[in-house]
Amino acid sequence: MITINGRFFSRRPTGVDRFAFEVISSINDLIGANDPVVQGLSFKILLPPGVTTKQEFSHIPTETVGWSRGQLWEQWDLPRLVPRESLLLSLCNTGPVLSCQQVVVIHDATPVRMPMTFTRAFRLWYRVLMPLLGRVSRKVLTVSEFSRQEIVSAYGMPRDKVSVVVEGGEHILRIPADTTAIQRFGLSSRPYVLAVSSMAAHKNFQLVLDAISRLGNPPFDVAIAGGANSRLFGIAGMVDCERIKWLGYVSDSELRALYESAMCFVFPSLYEGFGIPPLEAMYCGCPVLASGAASIPEVCGDAALYFDPHNADELAALLMSVGNDSALRAELAIKGHERSAQFSWERSARQILATLRE
Asked: pTM score, two decimals?
């Protein structure tokens, strides 16, 4: 029996939660196909009170257990209620330190490497929790060789206990593109660069606005999707710049349309354990310009053009170069398709299942 820690279903989805959801969905599909990799295995998702999966997994039952919620549920209720003969699978960075029969996925060491992104209490909790999980878990999985090195270094985990599994990006193709979004967002008359904003300091979104400020009146617009808005960045003269289109939150169908129609996608992050958005862009045939930091070159390979995430002038020059060279954009799109084909959620699920069998 494999018991899946379902605590992540209780919160607003992040990239880490996307990983967990897609892995479970792929395992569910493998069970439905009677694939040999799942034969002899059974699965169940345990959930805190009042939490649902929001989407039924036809071959993986769910069960509500315990009385508390959040960290208390995960650290106290969950380990006591997992069947004794079961192996617990925790997919979203945390897991119960009282459970030795556990495989845990730790995505990165962001709280240690980028402390400005988190509260002091959160950082202290992770400094206690992560080494303990590394000690008690049967196996630790992570999502890149970069992250493997990081969590070994930052949390003192035994190197031979940590293994790497891939992530995917093909989920962006499941929902038809909302092509009306391009007209609705006012992006149909000029080429545009796509970026996805975030308030997190390590996402480094300020660099994109700094780069555009260097260009004055570029021959393209910049479409900024995401929950953040111009007031959160506040560059003098940039809030009302007609070249900047603040789109706010976009649906998956709108995001796919934005990827497919963009001149290029820019990913300026300073720190990523993996980085799903560039892979989504590649799946959609969108040329990618990416920071050369952390795991990003490991994921994107030769299918992206890289820039120094601290150098706005370099990014500005790269944007103009890509904007003026249609052959380069076509080449990047082809390389992106080839690169993205090496990653999938099914492959991730198979790698995790192989670890569980081991």
From this structure: 0.92
